[in-house]
Structure to design on (428 residues):
């Protein structure tokens, strides 16, 4: 029994030692969680709007409104640029007649040795912290959308002893309030317009809108002595305007009224209209107001439904024989070129149609055609003994020429090797 008791004690001791070892192992595998230290801070700042800023209430002032947000661009201690968006404004955040507001931001590990940039509204800040000028390319022409989403104001400032700086935001854009009228200014077009495009050659702004009473509001990048091309449409007619020497400064609003030139398709044109190198037709009275880069090339001389003929505003420089006149270096080479059109030598029937006569008339009068050519700014056909080729061949070696004298046109069979005047036309 004595030996058994000792053995039992040894066994119990072994078990206890085994338990202690197990406890130690268990203790070694348990790890305490490290306390989490947050590097995100909540900061507020109060910003104001420049008193000189023009936009965006009915009274022409820029103001803060509930639910608006602002972006703050800063660098963290790793040198990375970060964009933070504020909490939405509440009515209690806004003061001083809506010209001042307190914004709240959450910033992560900000480097307070670096400047911060405020961008308002937040929609005008890209993810990388740069200004989203691309947003200006598509607008809807309304004051409400412009003021809430597009009217850019910014400010870059240094931290103020570890706090976000207070700042006065400065408007970076010019705001145009457009009223559009017809070319004489006698009729308002604004309420019918569904689309407007402004381009200064580097930046383009497209406005798609409902046809409602104006003005049409457009936010643009500032310009200095710029040429601006304006086009507009009501869904049926197209209008154009070229502005020169235009300076629109940032922070300013401009109420502008522009007289627009109507641009017609050739199918919509009428006899006497100018045809530009852009392939559009314009009223003769607008010949001095064609779009930049467009010159008058011809005049609508005949119309039948949606089809017709355009006569060139001037003869070819040299007389030609019939073969040359009908070839590639003849009437077909007339300049300036018209987009979508092909110059050619008129046939006998086409000459008569441009004279305002039946296609097979023998003695048409061309004074009406001359009247329209002169009004369009072109060179009228001579009124004494002048000869023009037609493309209509009678038989091998001879073709029709038209002899013009004292307002009447005479059709004559002529040898093709004779040199005569050439006036090009194009059909549409």
């Amino acid at each position: 029994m004595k030996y058994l008791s000792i053995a039992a004690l040894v066994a119990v001791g072994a078990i206890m030692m085994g338990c202690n070892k197990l406890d130690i192992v268990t203790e070694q595998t348990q790890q305490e969680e490290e306390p989490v230290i947050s590097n995100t801070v909540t900061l507020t700042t109060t910003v104001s709007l420049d008193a000189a800023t023009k936009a965006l209430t009915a009274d022409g002032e820029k103001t803060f409104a509930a639910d608006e947000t602002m972006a703050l661009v800063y660098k963290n201690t790793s040198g990375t640029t970060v964009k933070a968006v504020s909490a939405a404004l509440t009515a209690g955040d806004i003061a001083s007649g809506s010209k001042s507001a307190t914004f709240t931001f959450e910033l992560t590990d900000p480097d307070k040795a670096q400047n911060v940039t405020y961008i308002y509204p937040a929609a005008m800040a890209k993810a990388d912290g740069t200004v989203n000028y691309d947003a200006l390319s598509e607008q809807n022409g309304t004051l409400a959308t412009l003021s809430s989403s597009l009217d850019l104001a910014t400010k870059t400032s240094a931290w103020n002893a570890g706090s976000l700086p207070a700042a006065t935001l400065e408007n970076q854009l010019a705001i145009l309030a457009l009223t559009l009228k017809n070319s004489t200014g006698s009729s308002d077009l604004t309420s019918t317009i569904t689309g407007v495009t402004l381009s200064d050659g580097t930046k383009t702004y497209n406005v798609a809108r409902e046809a409602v009473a104006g003005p049409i509001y457009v936010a643009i990048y500032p310009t200095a002595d710029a040429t601006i091309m304006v086009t507009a449409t009501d869904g049926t007619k197209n209008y154009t305007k070229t502005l020169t020497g235009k300076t629109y400064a940032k922070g300013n609003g401009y109420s502008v009224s522009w007289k627009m030139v109507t641009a017609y398709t050739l199918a919509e044109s009428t006899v006497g209209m100018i045809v530009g190198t852009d392939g559009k037709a314009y009223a003769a009275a607008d010949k001095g107001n064609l779009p930049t880069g467009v010159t008058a090339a011809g005049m609508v001389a005949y119309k039948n439904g949606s089809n017709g003929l355009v006569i060139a505003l001037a003869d070819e420089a040299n007389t030609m024989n019939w073969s040359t006149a009908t070839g590639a270096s003849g009437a077909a080479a007339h300049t300036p070129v018209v987009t979508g059109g092909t110059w050619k030598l008129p046939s006998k029937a086409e000459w008569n149609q441009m004279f305002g006569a039946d296609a097979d008339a023998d003695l048409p009068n061309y004074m009406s055609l001359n009247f329209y050519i002169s009004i369009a700014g072109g060179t009228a056909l001579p009124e004494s003994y002048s000869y023009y080729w037609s493309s209509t061949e009678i038989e091998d070696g001879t073709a029709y020429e038209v002899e013009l004298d004292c307002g009447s046109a005479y059709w004559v069979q002529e040898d093709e090797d004779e040199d005569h005047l050439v006036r090009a036309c194009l059909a549409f």
About this structure: DSSP finds five helices and 25 strands in the chain. Residues 2-29 form the longest helix (28 residues). The mean pLDDT is 89.
